[in-house]
Amino acid sequence: MQAAKYNWGVPTVVTLPKPSLVPGSVLVKVVCAGVNPVDAKNVIGDKLPAWEPCKRLTEWFVRDCTPGFDFAGTVVQAGDSQCNAGDHVFGTVPPFKGSFAEYVVAPVSQIALKPKALTFTEAAVLPLSGLTSIQSLSGRVKPGSNVLIIGASGGTGHVAVQVAAALGGRVTAVCSARNAGFVHALGAADAVAYHNDLIGAVYHPRSAQHGAFDVALDCVSSGDARDAAFGYEARIRGEPELLRGDFLRLGGGVVDWATAGCKRALGVNLFREGRELFWVRFPDSAQELRQLAEWADAGRLKPAVASVHPLSADGVAQAFADLRGRRVRGKVAIAVAPED
Known about the structure:
Layout: E1 2-7, E2 10-15, E3 25-35, H1 37-40, H2 52-62, E4 70-77, E5 88-92, E6 103-107, E7 111-113, H3 120-124, H4 127-137, E8 146-150, H5 157-166, E9 170-175, H6 180-186, E10 190-193, H7 198-207, E11 213-218, H8 225-228, H9 232-236, E12 243-249, H10 254-266, E13 275-277, H11 286-297, E14 305-310, H12 313-324, E15 331-335
Helix pairs in contact: 4-5
């Protein structure tokens, strides 16, 4: 089969044996794979210090690993699972196993039946962004909650807007001015240009009726200086404070990732109250994927696909370049096989 590989920071496509089924998994013929920033960063590159030796260490560590987590395709072998050969499914593969390939072996706890309302391409780009959104917002967003989504037109942000709305939240979306209409169509009640004064643009027009936000999900900030320069948390926690609940980030520096890892591995929460770097969980996510599929089939959730590239060295490189450009509206995908 054809599969992409990391090769010292440069993607390549090689011929590999078809993977073998293992207990508790299914063999899937991939139709499309979703591309996420974590793939373009070589999986672990944003979790290490930004200096050249760490960059080379990252490239060495992931060398010969296949990129990708998200996929949609058709079950070829169901093994001992409750799936059937021929089922159309979507979901994720474990880290370093990679979905940029013609076939993947996926744990049954990480897949669900593909939403009938979505194409394979749309379903393929949903899992990581959808799971991030539902895991971070469920329990924090209730009917009537005020929700702030930063980076609301991007890959995770535009899905988070729809998930927050499906949970009953009233969403304010921070994005570029050109994407205001896009996020309104997704279900955002308000749209604020990211370069504006958030206090003047958000707080005063809304304070009398809606009050401060119950939760903020920051899909932009990271350890990268270009992202950190926006200083969203400091602006939101200024005077007057716009947030009365948690501020959740999807990216951060080395200390943030180490703290998140401590919470995940040891169950010890060292984040200060009201602030957390959220780290998505793939194991046992089938029920959450089914919830995403239910919303999709009900017309409440539809990922936007910004670009689709072929499974080739140039195609994968262009997909990564799209993401690094930070101007993608929606998601990027890798076409592996023709849609049915």
